[in-house]
Amino acid sequence: MKKQYESPVMEIVEFEAEDIITTSSNMLPTDPASQMLE
Questions:
Q1: Distance CA 34, CA 38 (A)
Q2: pLDDT in tens, the chain (38 residues)
């Protein structure tokens, strides 16, 4: 059960991290806080 729970969490974290990094790089002049709230 631990593995099943860790797997989805890791995937979500990885996806979010990539999305934030990509968005941060493309929308750096914008408000990064807004992206975090999303």
A1: 6
A2: 566 556 666 665 666 666 666 655 565 555 666 656 55
How far apart, in Å, do the first and last CA atoms of the chain sit? 29
Q: How many CA atoms lie within 13 A of 16 on its CB side?
A: 10
The whole-model pTM stands at 0.18
SS (H, E, C) the chain: CHHHHHHHHHHHHHHHHHHHHHHHHHCCCCCHHHHHHC
Rounded to whole angstroms, the Cα distance separating 21 from 15 reads 10
